[in-house]
């Protein structure tokens, strides 16, 4: 479950370096119902900064209950699919234009070949639902600058520049409305490798300085923002009915000053129900922390967060990347994330035909089967009342930043509901009872979530906790859920 780590605001650095998490001032301010964030320096105050806790809770309610969403990275980069002129290009697929320093005109010529006639919004939304996912976030424009929607602001888009001439965001919006799934848009507001003035980071470690490899990219960043990015953000926020429910910004650079970001915040403030993440730039934290390709050892107490992850090693489709995580790993990640109060945004990378790679479909179907039986232990639950089950910090080993290394343990996890404690058992204790010590609530009974008859299990109160006698066979080899009913 280890992959490259990335975080975008101060509070997540704490989590990543494993220091014991004391609620930040901001978190305390939240708990006490005062104004959420005090970024007095901002030229434009965001709703997230000026709103009350009640307004925030209202805005975040569906998101907190959802817990599991689909990320979709889809665009022109699905055509080369990780190869350029027959050579494999290392790195994540959606970065091929940058990783291979492809001339802008040569890359833009791909649009004439993009015709995903096998794209079906009904099938993709249906796949998300069958997986137990409650929302979808799709790339409306990635760093390559190609808009996957009908844009009057810039012709380099799927309706005006390709033989496909359809707007997949419009079709997904209609299908999500029909199937009761929320829809959000990823938008690369800062990096744009085909628009003059757009920012470009040389490697996906997001370290400055920005870097251009083609004179066609040179220009003024503020001019790019006013000519393309801001008009397109307006189009996305007005042309798709009640959607987007989320705007997922990415890779803010130093070009995005508080003043420029403030201009975007002015537009976002017109949509009080809209959720946006901590990657806008200009010092704005938005609503959510977004740990990427890792799960923070203790979550982000006091902040809403969403761990985004690939199923293999790329976001955009790469034909040679078959390094897929197992269903066991993906499900246990979801459970681990929910037990720490976060959301899991799991990625798919459709092919240039519009179809979803079969391995990704299989994984999602298998996850959906588990959630069809055990979903109550994930959706709309609160974090664990325990904590030590997730692991502990090593007293000897240090992580990359020299802090005590967090050593995860994978025996069990827990989530909480008003009158229940859910225990997700990864290891089935077979002949010995499952022991829990220090239960923070009065336990009335126990049964297995997979057992529709809810046959009571024997609970023995002990001085140091309680024992639950479990049947010999685990209902599910990946995770079996024990339900403790509590007063
Ligand atoms: C990184 C990658 C970007 C990807 C994003 C998803 O920022 O640079 O390509 O879309 O992660 O979280």
Put the structure in a nutshell.
This protein has twelve helices and 19 strands.
Description:
The chain is α/β, with parallel strands linked by helices and 487 residues long. The protein has helices spanning 10-17, 25-31, 47-50, 53-66, 96-99, 104-108, 121-130, 168-179, 221-238, 258-268, 327-339, 358-374, and strands spanning 68-72, 83-84, 87-88, 135-141, 182-187, 246-249, 275-276, 288-289, 304-309, 343-348, 391-398, 404-408, 412-417, 420-425, 434-436, 443-448, 458-462, 465-469, 480-486. Strands 7-6-5-4-1-10-9-8 form an 8-stranded parallel sheet. Helix 10 (258-268) links the parallel strand 6 (246-249) and strand 7. Helix 7 crosses helix 8 (168-179) and helix 9 (221-238) runs parallel beside helix 10. The longest helix has 18 residues, at 221-238. It is globular, with a radius of gyration of 23 Å. Mean pLDDT is 91; it is low at 1-37.
User: Which residues sit in consecutive blocks of at least 5 with pLDDT less than 50?
Assistant: 1-37
Estimate the strand proportion: 15-25%
Ligand species: alpha-D-glucopyranose
The tally of strands reads 19
Overall helicity = 25-40%
Could you give a short account of the major beta sheet?
8 strands, parallel
Number of helices: 12
Radius of gyration: 23 Å
């Amino acid at each position: 479950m280890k992959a490259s780590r990335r975080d975008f605001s101060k509070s997540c650095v704490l989590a990543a370096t494993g220091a014991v998490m004391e609620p930040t001032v901001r978190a305390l301010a939240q708990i006490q119902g005062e104004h959420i964030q005090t970024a007095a320096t901002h030229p434009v105050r965001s709703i997230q900064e000026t709103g009350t806790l009640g307004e925030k809770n209202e805005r975040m309610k569906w998101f907190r209950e959802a817990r599991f969403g689909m990320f979709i990275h889809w665009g022109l980069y699905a055509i080369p699919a990780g190869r350029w002129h027959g050579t494999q290009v290392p790195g994540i697929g959606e970065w091929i234009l940058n990783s291979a320093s492809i001339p802008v005109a040569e890359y833009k010529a791909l649009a004439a070949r993009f015709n995903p006639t096998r794209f079906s919004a009904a099938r993709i939304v249906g796949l998300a639902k069958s997986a137990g996912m409650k929302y979808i976030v799709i790339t409306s424009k990635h760093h390559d600058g190609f808009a996957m929607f009908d844009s009057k602001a810039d012709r380099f888009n799927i309706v005006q520049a390709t033989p496909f001439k359809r707007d997949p965001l419009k079709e997904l919006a209609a299908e999500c409305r029909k199937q009761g799934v929320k829809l959000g848009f990823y938008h690369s507001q800062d990096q744009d490798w085909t628009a003059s003035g757009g920012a470009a980071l040389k490697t996906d470690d997001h370290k400055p300085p920005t870097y251009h490899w083609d004179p066609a990219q040179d220009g003024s960043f503020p001019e790019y923002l006013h000519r393309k990015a801001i008009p397109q953000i307006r189009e996305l926020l007005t042309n798709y009915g009640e959607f987007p429910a989320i705007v997922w910004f990415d890779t803010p650079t130093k070009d995005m000053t508080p003043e420029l970001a403030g201009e975007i915040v002015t537009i976002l403030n017109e949509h009080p129900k809209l959720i946006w993440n901590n990657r806008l730039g200009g010092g704005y934290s938005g609503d959510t922390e977004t740990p990427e390709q890792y799960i923070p050892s203790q979550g982000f107490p006091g902040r809403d967060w969403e761990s985004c992850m690939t199923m293999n090693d790329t976001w955009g489709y790469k034909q040679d990347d078959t390094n897929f995580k197992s269903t066991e790993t993906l499900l246990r990640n979801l459970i681990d994330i929910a037990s720490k109060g976060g959301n899991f945004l799991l990625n798919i990378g459709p092919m240039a035909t519009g179809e979803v790679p079969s391995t990704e479909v299989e994984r999602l179907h298998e996850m959906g089967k588990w959630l069809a039986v055990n979903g109550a232990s994930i959706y709309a639950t609160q974090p664990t009342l325990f904590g030590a089950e997730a692991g502990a910090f090593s007293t000897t080993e240090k992580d990359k930043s020299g802090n005590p290394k967090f050593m995860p343990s994978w025996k069990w996890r827990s989530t909480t509901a008003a009158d229940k404690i859910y225990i997700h058992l990864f290891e089935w204790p077979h002949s010995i009872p499952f022991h829990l010590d220090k239960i923070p609530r009065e336990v009335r009974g126990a049964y297995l979530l997979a057992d529709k008859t809810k046959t009571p299990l024997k609970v023995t109160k002990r001085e140091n906790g309680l024992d639950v006698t479990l049947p010999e066979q685990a209902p599910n080899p990946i995770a079996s859920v024990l339900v403790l009913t509590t007063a």
